[in-house]
Design goal:
single chain, mainly alpha, 6 helices, 80% helix, 0% strand
């Protein structure tokens, strides 16, 4: 958890110089982020289902005449790997976002931290997927659009950072260190 806290402080420094949203906009976003995340979870699940459908189609082509005639088996195998890795990262993101909904609704710091973790998983998934494209043009496009998306989502994530309460431990409970 200390690693996540240090990383949070580091990334917060990157966004500190950016202009802030008006206070009313930040307040509205902080109060309504929980249902925005519900929409995000739904869209992510739809993307996972699309990826699973692609995996099903590619696996069903394995060893068939159509699969060997139209597409080389190594290309089909690589599509299975890349889509599988993509779906893996999407599942982790969806779970983290889903787990963040209730704490976000209650304005707890835990919800924001779960969103931050989902954002980090998204960043790692972006890099891994870009590396798996095996093409310079695809790599550049993936990194370019992915970096823009990460910057925009990170900006909004850190704009609402201060609106979530840090839940302190009970004063009577000792840390188990």
């Amino acid at each position: 958890m200390d690693f996540l806290k240090k990383l949070e402080e580091k990334v917060f420094g990157w966004f500190k110089a950016a202009p802030n949203l008006p206070n009313d906009a930040r307040k509205w976003l902080g109060e309504n982020i929980w249902w925005i995340i519900i929409v995000g979870v739904i869209l992510t699940v739809l993307n996972i289902l699309r990826g699973l459908k692609t995996l099903e189609e590619q696996v069903s082509l394995q060893g068939t005449v159509a699969g060997s005639y139209y597409v080389s088996s190594s290309t089909s195998d690589w599509i299975i790997v890349t889509v599988g890795v993509s779906v893996f990262f999407l599942i982790i993101e969806a779970v983290l976002m889903f787990l963040s909904i209730q704490p976000l609704r209650e304005k707890q710091k835990k919800g924001w931290v779960l969103l931050f973790a989902a954002w980090l998983v998204s960043a790692v998934g972006l890099v891994v997927n870009a590396l798996l494209t095996l093409g310079v043009f695809s790599f550049i496009i993936t990194v370019l659009f992915g970096a823009v998306w990460l910057a925009i989502s990170g900006y909004f994530l850190f704009e609402i950072h201060g609106q979530f309460a840090h839940v302190e431990r009970s004063k009577g409970v000792k840390n188990a260190k």
